[in-house]
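SAMPLE LOG
Freezer: B-3
Tube label: C17
Construct: single chain, 97 aa
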Amino acid sequence: MNRKIEERVRKYLERDKDGIRKELLRVFLEGRKFTTDEIHKRLVEKGYNVNVKGVSAMVGLISSRLGILKTELGEKNRYHLKEEYADIVKKILDEFS
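STRUCTURE (predicted):
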């Protein structure tokens, strides 16, 4: 299972033209729970030109296709990296840095 996750994360990052995908994964590596609004604010502060809908799409893709995020449902959904994938994501991000 972990090998499949690694492959998916690598393919996801290979298509990262401007670094926003790497930055998004770095945000999740902080270990906190984030709403898409909070993630959007962080990415804009880092200089990325992205809207909230774009952030929602990226988070949705990471959650559904990569399977590494956990969703906490509520008035505003909160997302966080599944603990068991943190080391894998960090290792792969280091490879792409």
